[in-house]
Design a protein that fits this description.
There is one protein chain. This protein is of the alpha/beta class and 349 residues long. The chain has two domains: 3-161 and 317-348, Quinone Oxidoreductase, Chain A, domain 1 (Alpha-Beta Complex); 163-293, 3-Layer(aba) Sandwich (Rossmann fold), CATH 3.40.50. Helix content is 24%, strand content 26%. The protein has eleven helices and 17 strands. It has helices spanning 43-49, 99-102, 153-156, 162-172, 188-199, 214-220, 231-236, 254-258, 281-285, 299-312, 326-334, and strands at residues 3-9, 18-24, 31-40, 66-73, 85-88, 91-93, 116-117, 136-140, 145-146, 180-184, 203-208, 224-227, 241-246, 261-269, 290-293, 318-322, 341-345. The strands form four sheets. Strands 3, 4, 5, 8, 9, 16 and 17 form a seven-stranded mixed beta sheet that branches. α9 (281-285) links the parallel β14 (261-269) and β15 (290-293). It starts with a strand and ends with a strand. Bound molecules: NADP nicotinamide-adenine-dinucleotide phosphate and zinc ion (2 copies). One zinc ion binds at residues 42, 44, 64, 90, 161. It comes from Mycolicibacterium fallax (Mycobacterium fallax). It catalyses: a primary alcohol + NADP(+) = an aldehyde + NADPH + H(+). GO terms for molecular function: alcohol dehydrogenase (NADP+) activity; zinc ion binding. This is alcohol dehydrogenase (NADP(+)).
């Protein structure tokens, strides 16, 4: 039997999100059904519903930072039981079969259907996926994460996207003691980058538009904080970093940031602005620097990140909101007025 659940959806690129209902599928033999308790608001939700990444398939129920409690499991499910605290991130399925899926890199699935996004994508049967701004969801057990007991569900939610999106490149490019890491943009992703990189032992610098959030940045674990609106920042810090993680949701002058890398340093693009950015060849070639990118993380790495956060007491700074506040929350995210992740209490839908 399908289940009707309350949700918040966007019906067009310009309309505000409004309350609605959606149907969740029957719990199949390998499915886990859970009550969503909290859902984080990621800037990607805004890019998607406003059509900045191409026309969305409306109505769209956004939300891919989902945390809740299991209410039912299918007959063949072995990994979860009713009552378990679980989460779902940016995807709910993939081909399960290609080289990348086999390697646990489901986010880079190259098989049929590819990575099936938690919303604005399709299930295997072709029906649209709908995300976490809703009260329940049904997901194949292999795409569900376990939330460690020490992490409250509201703080767990943002880890499922913002957390793993920073954890994965920090691990891949070996952030740790003796490595200088800069995080550009102190928003939802950026503040997790500061906390995680500091927990890994790296020396962290925040590059923010202004010094408004400096006290926060230092409290979160950064050793240094600079304003990118000050041209002196770019002369002072030239050639300083092993790794720069760009989390900015708008276009930046990439050349200016590449110049801040040491020889062989890497700038990793994590922000996904609507428009393309130019890459000037001289700052790249001159110091054998690399420009790369990274997208969320696979299932095994997401679980590893959750366990790391429990062990190192790393959780996001959140503002829990009622669902009816979602449209204002979007405006505040767009104005860089978020400290540092909005999380919807789904009981208020
Ligand atoms: P967010 O909370 O809005 O943070 C973005 C930050 O970028 C802002 O807080 C602000 O930091 C800075 N910023 C915004 N506009 C700027 C501008 N015009 N110039 C310079 N800096 C600006 O957003 P988020 O949720 O962290 O997401 C950030 C980006 O990452 C989005 O594009 C999102 O789609 C993308 N994303 C990518 C992945 C992935 O897998 N790669 C995963 C999730 C999200 P300051 O005020 O400190 O300057
Ligand atoms: Zn996200
Ligand atoms: Zn695959």
């Amino acid at each position: 039997m399908t289940q009707t659940v309350a949700a918040y959806a966007a019906t067009s690129a310009t309309a505000p999100l409004t309350k609605t209902t959606i149907e969740r599928r029957d719990v199949g033999p390998h499915d886990v059904a859970f009550d969503i308790k909290f859902a984080g608001i990621c800037h990607s939700d805004i890019h998607t519903v406003r059509g900045e990444w191409g026309r969305a398939n409306y109505p769209v129920v956004p939300g891919h930072e989902i945390a809740g409690v299991v209410t039912a499991v299918g007959a063949e499910v072995t990994r979860y039981q009713v009552g378990d605290r679980v989460g779902v991130g940016c995807f709910v399925d993939s081909c399960r079969d290609c080289e990348n899926c086999q390697a646990g890199l489901q986010q880079y699935c190259t098989g049929a259907g590819g990575m099936r996004g938690t919303y604005n994508s399709t299930e295997r049967d072709g029906s649209p996926t709908q995300g976490g701004y809703s009260q329940a969801i049904v997901v194949n057990e292999n795409y569900v994460l376990r939330i460690p007991d020490s992490i409250p569900l509201d703080k767990a939610a943002p880890l499922l996207c913002a957390g793993v999106t920073l954890y994965s490149p920090l691990r891949h490019w070996k952030a740790g003691p003796g490595r200088k890491v800069a995080v550009v943009g102190l928003g939802g992703l950026g503040h997790m980058g500061v906390k995680l990189a500091a927990a890994m032992g790296a020396e962290v610098t925040v590059l923010s538009q202004s010094l408004k959030k400096m006290e926060d940045g230092l409290r979160l674990g950064a050793s240094h904080y600079y304003a990118t609106s000050d041209p002196d920042t770019f002369t002072k810090l030239a050639g300083s970093f092993d790794l720069i993680l760009n989390t900015v949701s708008a276009n930046l002058n990439l050349g200016a940031y590449l110049n801040l890398l040491k020889v062989d340093g890497t700038l990793v693009e994590l922000g996904m602005p609507e428009h393309a950015m130019e890459v000037p060849p001289f700052p790249l070639a001159g110091m054998r620097r690399s420009l790369s990118g990274s997208m969320i993380g696979g299932i095994p790495e997401t679980q590893e990140m959750l366990d790391f956060c429990a062990e190192h007491d790393v959780t996001p700074e959140i503002e829990v909101i009622d669902a009816s506040y979602v449209n204002e929350a979007y405006e505040r995210v767009l104005a860089s007025d978020v400290r540092y992740r909005f999380v919807i209490d789904t009981a208020t839908i």
